[in-house]
Amino acid sequence: MIYNDSIIVDNQYFANIIYYKKIVNFKNVIIEQYDEHKKKSFANRSTIAGANGIINLSVPLEKGRSQRTISRDVRIWNEENWQLRHWRSILSCYNNSPWFKYLSDELAVIFSRRFEFLLDWNLACFNWTLKILRLDLTYQLTEEWRPATPAGTSDCRNTIQPGDDNFPNPIRYQQVFENKIGFIPGLSILDLLFCEGPKSSILLLQA
Fold first, then answer.
1. pLDDT, tens digit (0-9, with 9 covering 90-100), for 167-206
2. How do the residues of the chain divide into helix, strand and coil, expressed in percent and rounded to 5?
3. What is the 3 state secondary structure string of 128-187?
4. pTM for the model
5. Considering only CA atoms, which of 142, 138, 116, 146 is closest in space to residue 33?
6. How many CB atoms lie within 10 A of CB 150?
7. Which residues, 6 or more positions from 168, have their beta carbon under 8 angstroms from its beta carbon?
8. Helix, strand or coil for residue 20?
C-alpha cells in the first residue's frame, strides 16, 4: 500500500463539501473500513437543503445505528424502501437546479440498485461523484486497523461529524433555496454538483 501524498478518510454517504475540499488536493485517497461503526455519523447520513431548511437522509441499518461492528460489516436494513424515499427527497430539492437534468439519470440507476452492505453503497456513491467531478486521484480501502497514521499520510478520520457548524472559508455558490432560507454551508456534495455541474471541481480546487 502506498501512503505518500495520501489522505485517509471515513467512508461516508454522499459526503459533504468539506470532505471533498480535503481530498481534492491528494493523489491517493484511503477509505477506512476497519474502524468501529459510530452512530450519528455521516457513514449513513447525508444532508441536503429543501425549501424549509436542512433535510437529513439516513440509511436504515440492521440492528439499528448502535450496532457494534466494524464499518465494512455494517448491513443495510432493506425492509423499507429507503432508496425511493431518499430519491424523492433529492428530486423535490433539486429538480429545478441547473444541472439536475444532466446528472439525474445515472444517479437514479444507483438508487435503483439494492445493496446489502453500507460500505458498498457508500463506495457506489463515491465512484459516481468522482466520475462527475473528474478528479485526478485514485482510492483504496484500508487493509487493517491502524490507529496511528503512517508518515506522509494526512489523517482526516473523525474530523467531519453531524452537528459541526464550523465551516471556515466555505465554498460560495448559488443554492436552490438560498433566496428563501439563506446560504447553508457544509451540505452534501450533491448540492454543489446540482447547482454548479462541471464547475464544482474548479471550486473545490480553488477553495
1. 677 899 999 999 999 999 999 999 999 999 989 999 998 8
2. 35, 15, 50
3. HHHHHHCCCCEEEECCCCCCCCCCCEEECCCCCCCCCCCCCCCCCCCCCCHHHHCCCCCC
4. 0.91
5. 142
6. 14
7. none
8. helix
